[in-house]
Amino acid sequence: MNAFVSVLGMDKKGIIKEVSSILSDTSINILDINQSIVQGYFTMVMFVDLSDMTIELTLLKKALNEIADKLQLKIKVQHEDIFNAMHKI
Amino acid sequence: MSQFNNILETIKMIDKEKLDIRTITMGISLLDCCDKDGEVAREKIYKKITTYAKDLVQVGESIEEKYGIPIINKRISVTPISIIAQSSDDSDYVAFAQTLDKAAKTVGVNFIGGFSALVQRGYTKGDKILIDSIPEALATTERVCASVNVGSTKAGINMDAIKDLGHIIKQTALNTKDQNSIGCAKLVVFSNAVEDNPFMAGAFHGVTGPECVIHVGISGPGVVKVALEKVKDAPIDVVSDTIKKTAFKITRVGQLVATEASEQLGVPFGIIDLSLAPTPAVGDSVARILEEIGLEHCGCHGTTATLALLNDAVKKGGIMASSHVGGLSGAFVPVSEDEGMIAAVEAGALSIDKLEAMTCVCSVGLDMIAVPGDTPASTISAIIADEAAIGVINNKTTGVRIIPVVGKKLGDSVEFGGLLGRAPIMKVNSFSSESFINRGGRMPAPVHSFKN
After folding, report:
1. Residue B184 located in a structural domain
2. Contact at CB, B6 and A45, closer than 8 angstroms
3. ipTM surpassing 0.90, yes or no?
4. pLDDT tens for residues B306-348?
5. C-alpha to C-alpha distance for B343 and B203, rounded to whole angstroms
6. Best to test chain A binding among B8, B58, B61, B67 (most A CBs inside 10 Å)
7. Which CATH number goes with the domain that contains B409?
8. Taking the mean position of all CA atoms in its chain, how far away is CA B108?
């Protein structure tokens, strides 16, 4: 399954490192990344492949949420189909 | 990543604009649960519901997890109990309601609908027993919802039932007076009731439905409101188009969830109900959409027109996004469940009379309206009769969910809590309809030619 990991919050050092470390540790492949900063607001969307993931989805979300709390971010993991359904005919 | 902005738009809809799936409702047929012995029938009902729906809540939660979209309610609708229970020799059906309540608690759903009777052409033995059981059934259960269909375009209106239901609603209010007469919030009186409605309190599983089915009710008034904020002062055509596009996106998510739930549960998909269902939370209001279109307050002149536009555009946008549309599809206007409606009543802008006009063009009827506790039963019956007439003549579903709150009067307010919200007590017309209601009888089906 492919999913989007979205990370939103005030910009600070080390966000990409922290998030990508967890993905790497759990054998999740990053297929694409788009990141921008608007008025100090950090926005990143990663397109990832979860097919070799070595962790349950709920536990992955929990691990990411711990980082989110630490760095005061919002991190979501959502199956790609919700975006395809909404924005593609 | 070409989808970058689309992804952010979806996340914003969910996080900031309160986009959610309002309900996954499993319809279960109980037609094979009839028995001469009421106790045996209830055992069959309990077993069937707890078998079919055992994974419903867990599947709902796993879909929430996978797509990151909240699914607020998981619910069950069943075959109208009057049809099932009347094979038994029981003289009241409260125990059937209690069985439904127990089954709902076992599988973890927050409401179960179908303590219902369809009486538009008259009462059977079981219909009368069920209606008489409603006050005690709703007072002694927590999650059971009741509904009675009193009229249809083909059959006309059962005025005897309407007369009885005025008293039943008053008695239900009295039986639950310690909880602000909340029993009445779990009872809808319909005309032209639909058999595939996933929303409570009026959901039941029609006898023409399959053994088991999954319906999904969407929501998202906040998303529509925010979309309209971007087209301020544009002509009304642009408003209509904007609502259509937004409804399309919301409905596609509903279809995705419905398809997934249907697959995971191994149960056929029924319909998507394209309803804008408000909640008492700020930013989740249908009234505020109408105000965004240009009304100072919901309820002022122009409200019926803007609601008609909204209701129609929601359907037009949603229909293409779903393979099967049904239920009550449109915009709901439940007063206590909509922060903007509550504010409009408190500001003196919105009256029962205006709400009645709004129900001519919205998807249901007079919904979650609290009135003084001393409102006569005949006045409540007459309110139901007016709504039934609107439904029957205009070939649409209408419903009445009215709460004569014991001990409360005009100027008071009542807190129901949760999704049921808070209701200011509304003024009813103080002149009597008693002689009209006392006539009883059956109003003939209307002619559908000579339309004027």
Report:
1. yes
2. no
3. no
4. 999 999 999 999 999 999 999 999 889 999 999 999 999 999 9
5. 28
6. B67
7. 3.20.70.20
8. 20
